[in-house]
Amino acid sequence: MGKRSSPIDQQKWWQKLKEHRYIRHSLFVLLGFLLYAAMVSNVIPETLNISPGTMSDQDIRSPVTVEDRDETEQKKQEAAESVDSVYSIESRYAQNRVEKINEIFLLAKQVLDTQEERIQAYEAFEDNEDAGPSGAEGDLEDEEREIPPEPLTEEEKLENLRALMSSRTSQELSDQTLTALLNSDEEQLDQAEQIITNTIYDVMDDEIRMDELDVARDQAERRVSISIADQDLYEGMVELVRFGVTANYLYDQAATEEARQLAVETVEPVMIREGQLLVAQGQLVTSEVYHQLALAGLLDDHTNIYPYIGLAILVLIMTGMIGYFLSDAKTSLRTNNTHLLMYVLIFGLTLVVMKVVSFTHLIELPGISLIAPVAMGTMLMTILLHPRVALFSSMMFAVTASIIFNNETTSVVNFTHGIYVFFSCVAGTFFLSQSHRMARILQAGLFVAGLNILIVIAILMLRNAQFSLWEAGLSGAFAAGAGFLAAVLTIGLIPFFEAGFGILSTMKLIELSSPNHPLLRKILLEAPGTYHHSVIVANLAEAGCESVGANGLLARVGSYYHDLGKTRRPHFFIENQMKMDNPHDKISPQLSKTIITAHPYDGAAMLREHRMPKEIIDIAEQHHGTTLLKYFYFKAKQDDESSVTEEEFRYPGPRAQTRESAIVGIADSVEAAVRSMSKPTPEKIESLVNKIIADRLEDGQFNECDLTLKELNTVATSICETLQGTFHSRIEYPDEITEKNVDKEKVKKHG
Prior knowledge:
Layout: H1 6-18, H2 21-43, E1 60-61, E2 66-67, H3 69-81, E3 87-89, H4 91-131, H5 135-139, H6 154-164, H7 167-172, H8 175-182, H9 186-203, H10 213-227, H11 231-244, E4 249-251, H12 253-265, E5 271-272, E6 277-279, H13 287-295, H14 306-328, H15 337-358, H16 375-384, H17 387-404, H18 415-432, H19 438-462, H20 469-501, H21 506-512, H22 518-526, H23 528-547, H24 552-561, H25 589-609, H26 614-622, H27 630-639, H28 659-675, H29 682-698, H30 709-726, H31 734-749
Antiparallel strand pairs: 1-6, 2-5, 3-4
């Protein structure tokens, strides 16, 4: 018989198709499309055909929270205008004016000093002219004598004084005032300067507004009039003191702007709150109300594309997160597109259920939307795929439900319903993560129903709103109904997914493990030794798989059926040879090899005929891999040493593709070897198990599965512990000891 690799070759194209990345990407695109289609109708803004001056036929509330910028700006402007201008007293102004007065008097004294010098020089020159020429001076020519400048006239003194003064000061002071200064002596000027400066300081010590400047100057003038007796000097002093006094309480632009800015910052934005009543039924729609409706996006005067873009971004994020998680998590969804398609269908079915239930808000019963059995989706994922996948999907269902069930709120997102759905889904996942039995699903429905009621009560109390017992009871009843519906739908849909996708669920495995299954009955009746062998292999394989995190139940059920092919020729296998000669002693090693190596593939063919799950078929076909039939190989070598090769006496394969197949193969070899031991001890068993695993490892039997060396060591330890319990030493009971003694006595007596 040739190498039977054709079944694998025939399935290669299907395996490639199942793992093709373009198909995988298409499935994620389909999932995104389903998410978008389920939520798009809930994010489309509600629009109203309404105009100013008409009566509203309904209560209209804002669906969003938005700022009324025009109203806010108006309030800010009013706040700024309400702030009075800020004035501040400038104390330095008095000092500046006094310095100007001091400068005027100083310049006047300089002009007077210059005039005095000229007068003295001119008088000395005239005295010398009257005495006549004498001495050295007489020798000088008249034209060489220096003639001093003549004293300044009144006009020249006034002109010089104005030339020394700043142009602005010169323009503000009259000729009469300056002439009065120039006609006074130094003592009078000092006295006048002191009086004016003191008066300026005293008057400008108080606040002087621009409109109060004349009053302040009159006050300064009265003070000067009391102190100056000279009428000519008095006129000049009055003008100087009025010139010196100026307004010192002026408008402070920086402080005013700061105060107004502070007032503007204290203005709170005018917000249209989510849920705010904009216009009541029968109320007139004013221009202000119409403006608020426009801000809330409730008018049909233009199309707003932002909700569509926002939903697309949200769906893109959700799909990306799902894709990343499924590609990273250690589940079958990472590589198996068939399982991914099933995930998309379960997800889509859950979305359809939520969407259909969302329309029940039209019935106007309190809490009726709580009856949505969203936990059905996560319960199906837990049973058919993996609890981690279901737990992650719970978050996605919560986000989706918060948008689909937003009819009960004016907001786009109904957070309370999202929380309710999340806890409901998580409850079903946690309860089913340990067991998938049918009764467990019904118990999970009860658990979800109870938790749903608690969540509803918590949400009602958190709202801090008035609610009647009728509303609370009705909401709780619908929430409980969601749990029961989720369990019923899960039980009803599981067979369809198992049949349609060839899913080997825990419930299916438990069903296949029943001793009443026709194939197991066939093994028991036609090959009882093989049946007993398979049961022990199942115990060993299950313990080994569970020790490394593999599917122990799959290994157990696969072990039950792994030697089904032996039922075609049961007496050619030693465990079924009871009180009979070994038929292999009468045939050639090559024929024995053909019979023995055929049983994995005969069993796989029989399993396919009965439409058994692929995982069970793979275990039956792969548990021997490409191992060597050493007994018949060496027997053939003895008969014909030259023409016998190992390849002729190896199983055709394939090698184990999964950890479960590899561990079943180890358990199969170990059980047969240990059973042949005369006096098994823990040390002998451990040595034998390690040798079998080492031989298979060196032979490359684990090259195509993902068992690590560490896991192989863990499997060996687990199998040894199980074997020690199976092949333990049995003590003799008293009755047995007595019977043996009696038999010995009979032997002695009779001979």
